[in-house]
Amino acid sequence: MRTGVLIYKDVLSSLSPEAKKILGLILHKGGMTKSQLAKVAGLKLTTLNRMMLPLEKADLILPTETGESTGGRKPVIYDVNPRRYYVIGIDISRLYSQVVLTNLKMELIEKDRFDMDRNSSPQATLNRILDWIGRVMEKRGHGYVIGVGIGTVGPLDRQSGIILNPENFEAQGWENIPLKAIVEERTGLPVIIDNGANGAVLAETRYGSGKGMKSVIYLNCGVGIRTGVISSGTLVRTINDADDTFAHMVIDVNGKPCHCGNQGCVERYSSIYAIMEALAEEMPQGKDRRNHKADRPVSYLELCREAEENDTIARQVLQNAAVRMGTGLANFIQLLNPGLVVLSGPLILHSQLFYEVCVEAAKRRRPWDKGGHLVFSRGGAFEENAISIGAAALVVEHYLEPETLG
Q: d(Cα 42, Cα 31) in Å, to the nearest integer?
């Protein structure tokens, strides 16, 4: 290995299924003693020692600390090595893009985030991301990169690694882009591509706020509403790996026409585009907005801020959108019976009001949760980094639990 440079190493695919099982247990449950591992895995200690040997030889796991003694020698706790193997995660979204370097525990090491605008063509966006990856691999040594994950908007041809015909990118040219092939050619690393919300829900379930839960919903509220669902431990997939399952749930059969061909879809009321449209509809009615001239366009960030500051129109627009979202969410929850619902994305992370009203609207329609076991989370464990870290998680889980990914 060249000093001071990260290079690719295929370490996970060569492991036996038994070794992968042990590594997965430590990754998902945290550091454990050998006795604890043997109990969780249902193995004899001698069998466990044999399974752990290749993990120790490859520096995938290592003794990290000494546990509490119960009378004899203090037991050693084994955990995943946080400074030997790394993963790159890429989030390509309509409002921003982000690239991160994580370790196998999905701990964030470095990141670059930038806004997407009319100049963010596929070539410009990928050049910036790939230049950053090159710089990080050059400057950060003493370890290996095992692959790159890409989480993006759908629809996708996931097997071929192509983003097909996504809507609402401000820049032109985002049709039929072979993301997987481009990134593999430039980096020399294997690439996994998926709907970004799928990566986020996987990260939250395996490494974040949904640890130990079998069913988790992740909703990313931005220009569109993106959906990721883990049900009974398995990722739920849609046609063309589209990310708008929840977005096009009909909540008003006589409602606003939607580009999907239906009427009254959640996205027609509760996405950033829909909210800004609703604000524009309010303005010609002679209603004053407190801090702005009526003829000056505002951004969704300004709208969120004004609503938090009790601007009457801004607050009403956001509340109406949030109630619609919460109504649809109640139906979605009743269908999927999750233990955790993570609401994230630009709209949620910039508006406490939208989040609170949405959750309250969902809870008012709660025959599905009389016991109070359902948990809501604003942003989850990974907040604005969920999709990029989720993309990195896709790489690791691809090797450890391919049956989960479908």
A: 17
Amino acid at 371: G
pLDDT by residue (tens digit) across 7-20? 999 999 999 999 99
* 72-113 pLDDT per residue, tens: 677 899 999 999 999 999 999 999 999 999 999 999 999 999
As a whole number of angstroms, the distance between CA 209 and CA 397 comes to 17
> φ and ψ at 54, to 5 degrees?
-65, -30
**What is the distance between the alpha carbons of residues 388 and 22, in angstroms, rounded to a whole number?**
25
Nearest Cα to 229, choosing from 324, 347, 333? Answer: 333
The pLDDT tens digits for 365-377 are 876 556 568 999 9
Contact indicator for 137, 181 with CB cutoff of 8 Å:
no
Instruction: Say if residue 234 is in the same domain as residue 372.
Output: yes
For residue 308, what are the contacts with CB-CB under 8 A and spacing of at least 6?
351, 352, 353
d(CA 10, CA 8): 7
Q: Is residue 57 packed enough to be buried (19+ CB in 10 Å), middle (13-18) or exposed (0-12)?
A: exposed
Angle at 355 between CA 206 and CA 327, to 5 degrees: 95
- The verdict on residue 3 lying in a domain is no
Domain that holds residue 358: 210-380
Residue 286 shares a structural domain with residue 161: no
232 and 320 housed in the same domain: yes
- Look-up of token digits 């601007």: 311
